[in-house]
Design brief:
The structure is a homodimer. The first copy, chain A, is α/β, with parallel strands linked by helices. Chain A has twelve helices and twelve strands. In chain A, helix 7 links the parallel strand 3 and strand 4. In chain A, helix 8 packs parallel to helix 9. The first copy, chain A, starts with a helix and ends in a 9-residue tail after the last strand. Chains A and B meet through helix 4, helix 5, strand 2 and helix 6 of A and helix 4, helix 5, strand 2 and helix 6 of B. Chain A binds a DNA duplex through helix 2 and helix 4.
DNA sequence: AAAATTATTCAAAGCGCTTTGGAAACAACA
DNA sequence: TGTTGTTTCCAAAGCGCTTTGAATAATTTT
C-alpha cells in the first residue's frame, strides 16, 4: 500500500495524506484522525527510498571502524556503537558502518560515504590531537559530530568527557593521600584524550607542589601487556624512587599493573595505590576488580546515545550553533587507594 | 552533476548513459568509453536514493545486535561485523545495524527493518536451535542468511563452521592420548553450535569406547568465570573421578580453567590437558596462551566476509538455490595437550 | 450582503534514477 | 528492390514521496 492508493481510498489528495501523517498544522484534526486510522488499518508504511529521494535526506548516520583495532578498542567502539544504534532507531534513523580495507585509506572511506550521499552526518570517534577528518568532512560538506575533541582551526560539534578533570581528580586524591611518586600509564599520545589526561594529572601534582618525574609517565596501547611491562620496569627502581601509586588509562592496564605488583609481592590498596579510568562496559568494571578499584568512570554507551541525539538535533536545525557538551567524570573511591605508607 | 546534466553534456539520452555506466551490452564500446570519461571528468556519482527508488533495492544489508550482550559475545560480534562491513563496502553495499531497546522486542526490530524496506537482506548471527527468526523473516518476505545453522522446517541459506567435526577431533585427540575422563565446558545449550559441539564430543569418546559421564559436561556463558567455577568443582572430585582433560568452548573459559588448575597446583599441558575453541580475534589467541593452547580454530572475520559474498550472490540470483557452506575447522596441536599420566 | 481572512484541501511538478517498448541506422539476405 | 536481422540509441513512463502555488470552503470583518 502506497501513498497514492491510500489517498485514493480516503478520497483525499496525496498532499493532504502526506501532511496529515507528518504532523503538518494545515490539516484538520478530524481529517488527520481519519488518515491515521486508515494508515493503521492498511498497515501503510511510507517508502524510505522515496522519502529519501524527495527530501534529499537519507535518515542515516555513519560511523567508521577505527583504523587500528585491538581488543579494548573494539569493546569500547562496540559499546559506543550500541548506544548510537539504540538511540538512532528510536529516532527513526539508521546507522551504517564504514571501514577502511586493504589499500583503501581511511580518508577514502569518508570520501566514499560522502560522495554516495548515503549518510546525513557522520560520527567520528577516537579523534587525534591533529586529526585530518574534520577538515576533510567540512570540505566535503558533510556534517559531523566528534566523540571527543581535537585541535582544529574550524568549529565542530562534539560530545566529550572531562578527561582533564578526571585525571586531575585522580592525581589530586593520590597527592592528598600523601603519595608523591605517582606514575601515569597513558594512552597513545596522538589521541586528544590522552593529552587532556596528562594535563590534568600534571596540574594536580603541581598544585600540590609535587615535581612531575617524566620517567613516571608513559604512554602506549591501553592493554594489559602495557601495564605489566611498564609497572614491572618501575617497580624495579630503588625503593626511594619507586612509585607508590599508579594511574592507568584503562582497567586492562590496571590488570597488568596488578600482575606486576603481585609478582613483587606487593598488594594493591595495601602497598600500592591504583586508580584507573573505567569506561563502563556492560555495566561492570572497576567494582569487580580485586580489590574494588578506585576509578574515574563514565558510560560510553550513554555517550553514544547522547551524541546521536545531538547529531539529529544538528541536522534538524542546521543554522543553530554546533552542539557541544562536556560531561563531568565521577571519581569513585574504592579499595585500591590508601594513604601512602 | 546528475544523470540528466551528464547526458545533456554528452548529447546522449539518459538511457544510454545509464546503460553505458552500468555495463549493459547494448551500448557500443566507443560510446561507453566516452561516457565513462565524461563521468570521471565531472565526478559524476549516481544518487543512491534515486537508484533505490527506481530499483526497489536498497543496496543495504542488515545485522542486529545480539539480544544478550557480554564481553566475548561483543568481541565475536564485532569481529564478524567488521568482516561483513569490509566485504560489503567492496561490493558497494552498506551495512546497517539494528538493536532491540527497552520494551521493543527483538522481533520488533526485524519487523521494523522489513517494513521500512531499508535492507535487501538480513544476516542472522548466533542462531538458537529453535530460533524464531527464520520463520518470521520468511513470512515477512525478507531474504536472509544465517551465520550458523538452526533447526528449521523451512529452507534457509547459511554459512557455518563444522562445530561437530571440530569437537569430534578435539575429543578424539584426547582419547587417543589416553584420556578417559574428559570434561566439556560448552556454551549455552540453546545455541545450535553448542549442540553440534556436544554431539561431536560424545561421538568421539563413544567411538573410542569411553562412556560419557554426564557430570563432566556443563554449559553456560563462555566467560572466564564459568571455566573457573566449573573446573574448580570438578577438580575437587576424588582423584579417580577427576577429569584429566578439559575441552572448552572459548579461550575465556580456558583461562578460567587454567586459574582453577593453578590454584590446585596443577599445570596445563603437564597434569591437565586443555583444548579450547578459538574464534580468531585480531589474529591472536590460543598461541599466546601459556602454554600455547591446543585449539580448534576458525576465523570469524573471514566468516563475515564470506557470508556477505553469499548474501549478495543470493540477492543477485534470487532463483538460484540458497547458498550454504560448512567450513572445516583446524585442530592445531600445541603445548596444552599431552598423554595422560 | 459583500469583502477580506483564515482554514483546508488539491493538482502538479519535481527528486534522479531504471527500464520498457520502440525507432533509426546499417548490414545482410533473398 | 524489399525483407529480415542486428546494433545502437532514445522518448517516456514509472518508482513513491514531498512541496509549491492555487483553489475552494468556512469564518470573520466591514
Amino acid at each position: 500500500m502506497n501513498l497514492r492508493e491510500l489517498s485514493a481510498q480516503l478520497g483525499l489528495s496525496q498532499t493532504t495524506v502526506s501532511r496529515a501523517l507528518n504532523g503538518f498544522p494545515e490539516v484538520s484534526e478530524e481529517t488527520r484522525a481519519r488518515v491515521r486510522a486508515a494508515a493503521d488499518l492498511h498497515g501503510y508504511r511510507p517508502s524510505a527510498a522515496a522519502r529519501r529521494l524527495a527530501t534529499g535526506q537519507s535518515g542515516t548516520l555513519g560511523l567508521v571502524f577505527p583504523g587500528e583495532r585491538n581488543m579494548l578498542g573494539d569493546l569500547l567502539f562496540t559499546e559506543f556503537l550500541g548506544g548510537c544504534v539504540e538511540r538512532a532507531s528510536q529516532l527513526n534513523y539508521d546507522v551504517t558502518l564504514g571501514m577502511a580495507h586493504g589499500s583503501q585509506s581511511e580518508e577514502a572511506v569518508y570520501r566514499r560515504a560522502v560522495r554516495n550521499a548515503r549518510v546525513d552526518a557522520m560520527i567520528l570517534s577516537s579523534p587525534l590531537i591533529a586529526d585530518p577528518r574534520p577538515a576533510l568532512l567540512r570540505q566535503l560538506g558533510m556534517p559531523f559530530m566528534i566523540h571527543g575533541r581535537t585541535q582544529s582551526a574550524e568549529p565542530y560539534g562534539f560530545l566529550d568527557i572531562d578527561n582533564e578533570g578526571a585525571f586531575f581528580a585522580a592525581a589530586k586524591l593520590l597527592a592528598d593521600l600523601g603519595h608523591s611518586r605517582v606514575a601515569l600509564f597513558n594512552g597513545e599520545t596522538a589521541f586528544n584524550f590522552a593529552a587532556d589526561r596528562e594535563r590534568g594529572f600534571r596540574r594536580a601534582l603541581e598544585m600540590r607542589g609535587i615535581a612531575v618525574d617524566p620517567g613516571l609517565i608513559s604512554s602506549g596501547a591501553m592493554i594489559e601487556a602495557s601495564g605489566l611491562s611498564q609497572a614491572k620496569r618501575l617497580l624495579e627502581l630503588p625503593k626511594d624512587r619507586r612509585p607508590t601509586a599508579f594511574v592507568c588509562s584503562s582497567i586492562g592496564v590496571a590488570i597488568g599493573v596488578k600482575r606486576a605488583c603481585a609478582a613483587q609481592g606487593l598488594g594493591i590498596g595495601k602497598d600500592i595505590a591504583l586508580i584507573a579510568h573505567d569506561d563502563r562496559i556492560h555495566d561492570m568494571g572497576a567494582e569487580s576488580f580485586d580489590p574494588p578499584l578506585t576509578a574515574t568512570q563514565s558510560s560510553i554507551g550513554d555517550a553514544g546515545r547522547r551524541i546521536v541525539e545531538l547529531c539529529v538535533g544538528m541536522l534538524r536545525e542546521p543554522q543553530a550553533p554546533l552542539p557541544s557538551e562536556v560531561w563531568p567524570v565521577d571519581l569513585v573511591v574504592r579499595g585500591s587507594t590508601m594513604p601512602v605508607g
